[in-house]
Structure formats: C-alpha cells, structure tokens
Amino acid sequence: MIGSRTLIALTLLFALILAIAPMPKMLESFRPDWILLVLFYWAIALPHRVNVGTAWVCGFILDILLGSVLGVHALILALVTYIASANYLTIRNFSLWQQALIVGLVSAFYHLGDYWIQHFLTTAYFLPELMWPVVTNTFIWPWAFLLLRKYRRRLKIR
C-alpha cells in the first residue's frame, strides 16, 4: 500500500506539472495557480502532513520550473500555507463558497506579494493581467476542493 505522504506528494507533483503545462496564448493570463490550490487544500485538510516546509519546497521547485528569482514563490507559498494551517479549523467550518472567497483573497495576496518582491528585486512592472488568476482560482476552488476531498477519502489519506 502506498503511504499517505506519497499520495499527497503525487497531487503536489501533478499541480506542478499543471503549472508549467502549455496553454493557448489567450488563456495563459487566466492560468489557475494549481500549486496554491492544492497546498491550500492539504493545509486545511491535513495540517499535520502538509506544512510550511512542504510549501517552501514546492515553491522553490516552482521557482526553478518557471525561471523566476529563486525563493520568491517559496516565500509566498510558505506564508499562504502558514495562514491556512494556522486557521484551518475556522476555514473548515465555512461553506464552500465562503472558502472560495478566502481562496480569492489569499490568491490576491499571493499575486501582489509575488509582484512586489519581483519589483523589489528586478524591474518588474505591474500589469492588470496579473490579477486574472485570482478570479480563476476563486471559481475553480469548489471543484478542486471536492475532487481532492474525494481523492483523500477514497484512498484513506490521513
């Protein structure tokens, strides 16, 4: 039998693959932050398994895959995971649509933090298209949550 850590790692690996998978040019600015959604789910579902360290490693791998400044995504994903895991009992009690709004706020924090750090370290400029994934993440969250919960329950990940 495959262990819980391996099954969680497979979902994170799949999210990393989706993060770099090619998309049509006109949909590229709407690309959901799959790794953010998956980390947020595991942080509220199993905070004792997925923690800030897991998020930092995933963010560091994402920095390498995207070719961005090393540590930017690692830092922001670690902060987002900390927020989720510190408040997991409260977030779990919200309805799915309320959780989607929280994911939207966290996603906005993620993108604005990413922009701010990139601007501080390089010459990045703010473009309004940077915020489209916030809307996409908010609308995708209910389905991502239900899919990951079904996966967790079916495979008895604890």
Describe it for me?
This protein has seven helices and no strands. By secondary structure, the protein is mostly helical. The chain starts with a helix and ends with a helix. The mean pLDDT is 95. Helix 1 packs antiparallel against helix 2 and helix 2 packs parallel to helix 4. It has one domain.
Which structural traits does this protein have?
7 helices; mainly alpha; 158 residues; 0% strand; cell shape; Rod shape-determining protein MreD
Instruction: Give helix and strand order, one letter per element, not per position.
Output: HHHHHHH
Mean pLDDT score: 95
- Cα distance spanning the termini: 14 Å
DSSP summary, beta strand count: 0
List the uncertain runs: none
Rg: 15 Å
Shape: globular
Largest sheet: none
- Integer count of domains: 1
SSE class: mainly alpha
The total of helices stands at 7
Q: Which range best describes the helical content: under 10%, 10-25%, 25-40%, 40-55%, 55-70% or over 70%?
A: over 70%
Task: Tell me what portion of residues adopts beta-strand conformation.
Answer: under 5%
Keywords: Cell inner membrane, Cell membrane, Cell shape, Membrane, Transmembrane, Transmembrane helix
Pfam families: MreD
InterPro entries: Cell_shape_determining_MreD, MreD_proteobac
Subcellular location: Cell inner membrane; Cell membrane
